[in-house]
Every structure is written in C-alpha cells, then in structure tokens.
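Please go through the protein record below and see whether the fold suits the sequence. Record follows.
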Amino acid sequence: MKPQFSYSPEPVLVPQPGCDWASKMVLNPAIVQDPEEADTLHMLFRATGPWPQKQREGKYPPYPIFLGYAVSHDRGQTWDADFSRPALAPELGWEEEELKVTDAVGRQVWNYANGCIEDPRIFPVEGQLYLSAACRLFPPGPYWLVDGDPPIETRYDYVPEWTQEGEGPFYETCRTNVTVTVLYRLDLDKLKARRYEEAFAYVGPLTEGHVSDNRDVFLFPERMKIHGRLQYVMLHRPMTPAAFPDGADLGPSIYLAAAEEIGDFASPKAEHRLLAAGRFDWEENRIGASWPPLRISEDEWLVAYHGKKDAHFGYTQSFLIVLEQEDDFPVVTHRCSERMMYAQQEWEMPTDYPTPCLFTTAGILVGDDLVMAYGAADQKVGLSWVNWAELVAYVRLFDADGVKKG
C-alpha cells in the first residue's frame, strides 16, 4: 500500500519583517535529533534578505545567505527560532586578503563561504557530526530573478575586479561565483547553548568550483571498502556532469565520489561514479540527492532525491535504495518512479519565485516515523511525516529502472 505522508498545515517558519538577514526567505532546513531528549529536534535553516550596506551603485542590493537556528521540543510540530542573530554568517569580505579563514586544524585557507552559506545538511561520519552547505565566494543580487521572464542574472554583480587578474582554480572559482560545497565540523552542544561562534569549525571544500558548480553534497555515515581500501563515500550533484565519468550527454545528475581522506574529495585524488541520471518525465531538467542516506539493513541505504522538470512544473521528491557492493561503489537496486512529494498546499505555492518547490533537505528517524523538513516556494519551512517501514516497503516494489513489480 502506498504510504501516507502528512504535512504541516501551515509553515513552521516564515520570513521575518524587520530582520535584515531573514526578511525575504526562510527555507531549506537541516534537522538533527537531540541525543539526550528524543522529542527535541534542532534545526539550521537558510535565510536571506537585502543587504543595502554593501550595495554597489547601479546594482541590485546583494542577498548574502545565512544559517539560522531553531529548536522543537515536540518532534517538529512547533519551532522556536532565534532571529536575534544568524548561527553561521558569511564574512562578506571584499578584498583578496579578506578571503581567508582559519580551518579546523588552525591553518589559514581560502574561505569559499565568504558570500553565501546555503542549503545545510547535518550528518554523522564515524561518530563526528558534520554540516555541509553550498557556498559562494560573493553574494549575488536577487538571484531568483534568473528564473523570471526575461531572466536577469545577478550572480556576478558583487564579484570584485581583482578576481580577473589571478590565475589558478581559486581565481577561476571567484570569477564564475559558482556554488562550492563546504564542510564544517558541528558541535551540537555549543549550538544548543547558542554559542554560535564556537559551534562550527571550517574543514574545507568538498567540491571543486573550477570543475563544476556542485551542490546537494553529503557523506554516507560510514566508510566502505572500494578497490581494496576503506574509503569515505560522498553523494554530489554537479551542474555540468560532462566533467565527470559517463556524464557527456546528461543533465545534472547524482554522482558518488570515494576518497581515502575527506580532504581529498576536492582534488583529483577522488574517484567518481554516476549513481543515477534523470529518466522520468518529472526529472527532465535535473535530479539530485536530497538529504544524507539512512541505513535500511546491513548493506542497504535509503536515498531521498529530487527531480525538476522545468520552471513551471517544479520539483518532485522521491526515493531510491542503494546496495553496497563487495569491493566497489554502491548501486541502485530500487527506484520509485512515482511523484511521492510535491507542492500541493496553498502556502507551498510560489509567489515571487516562479517555480513550485517542495524541497526536502533533512530526513531523520524519530520513533516509527521518518520526519522530513523542507523548503516550500523557496520562502518558507514545512515538516512532513511518514511511516518508515511503509515507505521502505513501497520503494522495494520498484526495480532499479523504476518499473513497479506486479
């Protein structure tokens, strides 16, 4: 039987008038369960508002993107958000020497999160909690205008002139101002205590901006044996798959990457493998993994993923199951070809942003339920609940090609 999803009847978080960093959009949250209080969930949400103090003459105001913190004590039904200040904010440096940050081991490195910190995902890897976020070196203007009619591109409005003179991957990434996914170590106790300045440790980039714009990036919680070596395994979604194996004729697709060290993912040392490309009507434009995988059995994982058809049809969420191999990358064994989640409620429909969008960025197990947090209409936050066992059983009815059995 098809599982029944329940949804918050109204948004659990919305933009805050008068809050300079969250007045326009509050969306795409990550959530994690408190290890000591089962009913308590913690959230990091993406937020933005116009930033006129950095506006350049003749340009739209910049829209830097921040992460805010919220907590729920009733398994996600209601949330208390801290809009007094961001939990994690871009530095918004302008000069070249301002684009450095101290990383988790005390080195001065390039700060790929200088302009925007978007779409957080929280996940454990071998007992350590991490946060990944799609970041930009410089904030864009009102970025949603690129999907308007006519489209207006504001991504380059706040890229400094000095970036045109440098050579090498960093300067190329500066000039294109694409998203680079950055990894942070997350101290949940300090986040809960709202000691935000101590809660995040910059680890470094997981993707290479000069290779492709890349987001929807996170790791499996455990290493896997691949080619005779225990390796970390990462999901990612390059905008230009042609730069990766078997991607020449594909739209944005779901890839795996394997590396012996986390720091090797953003380097030629990582090995990449195509996991899934768009094949159904509702995936015509792109697909990408939605939130970090959840273990089903000893060697199986549930991967939530999204597909986009076009700017008018919008985003659909569905699910697939991957199976670990003896000494190789995991492979898809079941793929639900049906539209399982999409914008339906009035408050989930777009206003300023033209594309219908229900975009899940978090899924955790709380009791018998899978609790998912999502961004709606690229402006608000919602929650959804579904029975975990029923969902997994339903996805198993489909084969690897999305054909339903029986």
